[in-house]
Design brief:
By secondary structure, this protein is an alpha+beta fold. It has helices spanning about 25-45, 55-65, 135-150, 160-170, and strands at about 5, 20, 70, 85, 90, 105-115, 120-125, 175, 185, 190-195, 215, 220, 225-230, 235-240, 245, 250-255, 260. The protein has one domain (about 20-260): Creatinase/methionine aminopeptidase superfamily (Creatine Amidinohydrolase, Alpha-Beta Complex), CATH 3.90.230.
Length: about 280
């Protein structure tokens, strides 16, 4: 049985209950999420061939410090970096290092800032120089998958509607959906209930209610969906070494649908790709 709880009275840990946030909390999330979005906007002009991912990590840390924010990943469960940088066949949780980006790479940069106790979580894909058409198509399919998942969010629907919308579209485009990782509740906690699966059926999962806040972050592969985690305990890669991509937004359920907290103020939600025509 799914339990819902008013966030203002909830304990400061994940108990499995789903928090329902009020308008004040939504305002706090807007502030945190927009700082994250601004950082991701700035990175669009910085990500170039030859740039070490450690330099991206330093930028994320310094941007946060300059704006009164703490990167949520820094020292989280032993993780020592301020961001995750996942290149090519890395599905998620890639660790920044001294290795430079190369022409034709695609890289996901995942940033979460904590501002006044609120967690703003988002990620985007960045083409490095000129990329192959297959990689560009993967980015387009992954971003569209995210939008279709978001469009399924409304009070009374179930979390499975998000997964069904993503899976139906991605598999129809001859791509696969990673099952090993999912979206999650977020707000006053970095990771909270419920889990948001990127596959499934519309009739499954907890009911969406006004006040819920969570991430939608589909990981889409050009090849098969299977992944493995490397010996560092963090880096997840595709088993068949096919390209993988991910875009992520934090959303809040409203009476009419949802609010996307992490939209780019500069219109760079899919940097490096042609303008989206719908």
């Amino acid at each position: 049985m799914v339990n819902y709880i008013e966030a203002a009275t909830a304990p400061s840990k994940n108990t499995g209950a789903i928090r329902l946030y009020d308008s004040e909390a939504f305002e706090g999330m807007r502030k945190a999420c927009q700082l994250t979005a601004r950082c991701l906007d700035e990175l669009a002009s910085i990500v170039t061939p030859g740039l070490p991912t450690d330099a991206i990590d330093r930028f994320v840390f310094e941007f946060g410090m300059d704006n009164g924010a703490i990167p949520a990943t820094l020292n989280y469960r032993g993780y020592t970096k301020s961001t995750c940088t996942s290149i090519n066949h890395v599905v998620c949780h890639g660790i920044p290092d001294a290795k430079p980006l190369r022409e034709g790479d695609i890289v996901n940069i995942d940033v979460t800032y904590v501002v006044d106790g609120w967690h703003g979580d988002s990620s985007r894909m960045y083409p490095v120089g000129t990329i192959k058409r297959a990689a560009e198509r993967l980015l387009e399919v992954t971003y569209e998958s995210l939008l279709r998942g978001i469009a399924a969010v409304r009070p009374g629907a179930r979390t499975g509607a998000i997964g069904e919308a993503i899976q139906t579209y991605a598999e129809g485009e001859r791509c696969s959906v990673v099952r090993d990782f999912c979206g999650h509740g977020v707000g006053s906690l970095f990771h909270d209930s419920p889990n948001i699966l990127h596959y499934g059926r519309a009739s499954e999962g907890p009911e969406l209610r006004e006040g819920m806040i969570f991430t939608i972050e589909p990981m889409i592969n050009l090849g098969r969906p299977h992944v493995k985690v490397l010996a560092d305990g963090w880096t997840a890669v595709t088993r068949d070494r096919s390209l993988s991509a991910q875009y992520e937004h934090t959303v809040g359920v409203t009476s009419q649908g949802c609010e996307i907290f992490t939209l780019s103020p500069a219109g760079l939600d899919r940097p490096g790709l042609p303008p989206l025509v719908r």
